Amino acid sequence: MTAYLVRMLSPSQYWVTPVLIVLLTIVPLVAFAKDNTVSAYEFVQEWIKTYGINHERAAEMMTIHHRGGMSKAEWVTTYASYIEHVKYKHLGGQLISVQEEEHKAKVILKSSVDSIRGPIVQYEIYDLLKIDGDWLIDFIDIKDENFGAAIGPETTEKLNSKSNNPAPKHVPSQ
Question: Is 87 inside a domain boundary?
Answer without folding.
Answer: yes
